[in-house]
Design a protein that fits this description.
about 110 residues, two-stranded antiparallel sheet, 3 helices
Length: about 110
């Protein structure tokens, strides 16, 4: 078999992309499979989805040289996050979890 694939990463989001980037210097043949093609960064496009990145996430992203590009784009602390089980956080979800905590204003 020519060019065997050692690892298939299902999903090219934050976790899948970071995992693939962490293995990029290995001799393994890695393929990332994602439902959609990645879209180019659009400075003025806003999305209601967020990612909560803690210090451990920052460390992992730094190790694959991805933290600085993340910091250069709309990074901001948050005071409250609502997690629902419906697409785009629609109202009246069967499960609603509200997490609120005090966080530092500095990243």
């Amino acid at each position: 078999m020519a060019n065997p694939i050692d690892i298939v990463v299902a999903g090219g989001g934050i976790v899948g992309s970071t995992f693939a980037a962490a293995l990029a210097d290995s001799p393994l043949q890695i393929h990332v499979i994602n439902a959609d093609r990645p879209s180019p960064w659009q400075e003025h496009h806003y999305d209601t989805r967020v990612s909560a990145i803690n210090l451990a996430s920052e460390s992992i992203l730094s190790s694959v040289d991805s933290w600085q590009p993340v910091r250069e784009r709309r990074v901001a602390p948050f005071r409250e996050i609502k997690v629902t089980d419906t697409p785009q956080g629609r109202c009246c979800a069967s499960t609603l979890l509200i997490l609120a905590s005090r966080i530092s204003d500095t990243l």
